[in-house]
Amino acid sequence: MIHTKWSDDFMGIAYRYFDLRMNIVPLLPHRKKALKMWQDVIHWWYDASIRVRFIEYPDQYRFVIGAESRRPDSNVSFYKILHKSPHYERFKTGYGDAAYLRLGEYSTKRLQDVKDSDVCNCGHPAGDHADDESTECLEDGCDCNEFVQTQVYMLRRKKTITDIVFLDYTDIEKDPLSWNCINSNPS
Ligand SMILES: [Zn+2]
Ligand SMILES: [Zn+2]
């Protein structure tokens, strides 16, 4: 019996087209944290052994990833319970037969950190936002009340994943990785 260590210590997942394939991008708040997760764990995974499972609930899904490692003693598997999103649905229908695994840094910038031409999540440039406490958008009809720019920076290193399965939460007994994850981490 293998004792798997589990971690959900990341912020979420981005799904991006890049380098011809879709990328599964676990997000970390700092580049340093992403590099550490890669160097400590993912770097040692055998690509062909990487398994990704999407366990689906009515509105949520549980992302599960694990692999065999050249350093089994310090190996970790990861999971996260997330809300289904259009990006998730696009990945599900569009990934084909393989995806890349990359880590990402999720950065959030406020008005004081950017140039006037940098664009807010509302789609309007920083220069169109009030320059006081509220930093609301001054464009007609825009209901943005705070300048926030979020960006995902993907690390270059990647691994190829070919073993990707979507399954219903009522149907996990046959899948050892999903079964292990749910039993070790009941939500
Ligand atoms: Zn805005
Ligand atoms: Zn706006």
Give me a quick take on this structure.
With about 190 residues, this protein is α/β, with parallel strands linked by helices. About 15% of the residues lie in helices and about 35% in strands. It is built from three helices and eleven strands; from the N terminus they run βββαβββαβββββα.
How would you portray this structure in words?
With 187 residues, the chain is an alpha/beta fold. It has 2 domains: 6-110 and 151-184, no CATH class; 112-147, no CATH class. It contains 3 helices and 11 strands. It has helices spanning 31-40, 86-94, 176-184; strands at residues 6-7, 12-18, 21-28, 51-56, 60-66, 77-83, 99-101, 104-109, 149-154, 159-161, 163-168. The model has no long low-confidence stretch (mean pLDDT 94). The structure holds zinc ion (ZN) (2 copies). The site of one zinc ion has 7 residues, from loops.
State mean pLDDT (0 to 100 scale). 94
Task: Figure out the total of helices.
Answer: 3
Overall spatial form: elongated
What string, H for helix and E for strand, traces the elements in order? EEEHEEEHEEEEEH
* Tally of individual domains: 2
Distance between the termini: 23 Å
- The Rg value, from CA coordinates, equals 19 Å
Helix content: 10-25%
Small molecules held by this entry: zinc ion
Largest sheet: 6 strands, mixed
Strand content: 25-35%
Report the count of strand segments.
Answer: 11
- Structural class assignment: alpha/beta
Uncertain residue segments: none
Multimeric status of the protein: single chain
